[in-house]
Amino acid sequence: MSATVAERSFTGPLAGLKVIEIGSIGPGPYCAMLLADLGADVIRIDRTSGAALVGPNADFRTEVMHRGRQSVAVDLKNPRGREVVLDLVAGADVLIEGFRPGVTERLGIGPEACAAINPRLVYGRMTGYGQDGPMAQAVGHDINYIAQSGVLALLGRNGQAPTPPLSLAGDFGGGGAVLALGIVAAVWEAQRSGLGQVIDAAMVDGSALLAAAFHGFVSAGTWDTERGTNIVDSGAPFYDAYETADARWLAVGALEAHFYADLLEILELDPAALPDQDDRSQWPGMKKTFADVVRTRTRDEWIERAAGRGCISAVLDVEESWTDPHNVARGTFVDVAGVTQPSPQPRFSRTPAYVDSAPPAPGENTRDALDGWGIPTQKIDEWEAAGAIAQTTPTPREPTQEGSAAR
Questions:
Q1: What would the 3-class secondary structure string for 151-188 be?
Q2: What is the pLDDT of residue 8?
Q3: Which of 41, 171, 205, 262 is labelled catalytic?
Q4: Residue pLDDT, tens place only, 36-77
């Protein structure tokens, strides 16, 4: 079923949590999306003019990471813009910002100014290099942060350049997801202490944390720092992707002995004719043998042969993943206003999470959102007259389609 905003206020494990997101790009919106997906009431503070998207999208209404929340357009450089944010802070549980260190302080909405109004506020700060240290004021992108943390050096095939893993390790995993965890933890603690706190989340630190196991392996001397030579970095012949006869791909994961035995049986390879599975000196030759065999059948022919085994999967294109029977049965993806996107995760037995609305245009919800947070109409009128806020006119769009609940 689809859910209205009113219905959603009673669903999701974070229902009742009130969050202010100071508009940014990358990890900040991702963090806010995670919280909104799980039921939090999130207001996004956008610019009154000049708001822009980074990446291939040109329409805010297709920016999936902005889903599930309302947009209020505020001019933070207007003397009364600060007043707008601080009035919202008085009734908020969380504030998220992604400026360089010191910027919100200069705008008058830094941690001290907010804590003076609401001591229980959890103030989440998202940066690349952190709030202190020699590089705190440096600018960068995902690739720079994961380079700094040692993660990028681990990614890629042997003899080739390091391969950026989209923006997954820095922006989203090491950035937004880590900040979301920190926020939930700080909110939990504030329920006992009655006090909020400042969260310093840096993508260098968070991406290092994502790679905790591999830092540990290197430290223990059990991981070859020459990338593409280890068991799960494309070095092992039994853990890699192989091209099929129809120019599609198979994902092979056969680490354990019984999976490896299944793999050889599926490929019709004689174990006695192959080197030992763990003989790394023979891995390049074994990989060529596997590749030659995999190219003799189509992807779907291999999947049929491997049915019931756990060592081979089809590498699905993004569009294929949307219609895969298992993903459809699980509701892994949802269509919201014509945009296919992942559904909220994880799944909760009593408090299901929903995507209740498509992403807003900047300032689309200014007056309604402020009113919904208890701001008096007279004050809203004054702010609008002073140019501190702006209300945009929504562009008609298709209604949200059903199927948005994560089951």
A1: CHHHCCCCCCCCCCCCCHHHHHHHHHHHHHHHHHHHHH
A2: 41
A3: 171
A4: 999 999 999 999 998 888 888 889 999 999 999 999 999 999
Count of CB atoms within 10 A of residue 384's CB?
16
**Contact assessment for residue 115 and residue 123, using Cβ atoms and an 8 Å cutoff:** yes
- Considering only the C-alpha atoms of the chain, give the largest distance between any 2 of them, rounded to a whole number of Å: 83
Dihedral over alpha carbons 271, 277, 279, 285 (to 10 degrees): 70
**pLDDT tens digits along 202-227:** 999 999 999 999 999 999 999 999 99
Give the pLDDT mean for 335-359: 93
Name residue 314's beta-bridge partners.
250
Give the mean pLDDT of 77-99. Answer: 97
Is 215 considered catalytic here?
no
Q: Tell me the pTM.
A: 0.93
Percent of the chain past pLDDT 70, that is, above it, reads 94
Look at the alpha carbons of 363, 365, 369, 370 in this order and tell me if their dihedral is positive or negative. positive
Domains and CATH numbers, the chain: 5-211+336-390 (3.40.50.10540), 239-310 (3.30.1540.10)
- For the question of residue 171 being annotated catalytic, the response is yes
Name residue, tokens 């809203």: 380
Q: Higher confidence at residue 273 or residue 401?
A: 273
Q: What is the pLDDT of residue 182?
A: 98
pLDDT in the model for residue 217: 98
Q: What is the predicted pLDDT for the residue at 310?
A: 83
> Which pair of structure tokens corresponds to residue 64?
């999936």
Q: How many residues does the chain have?
A: 407
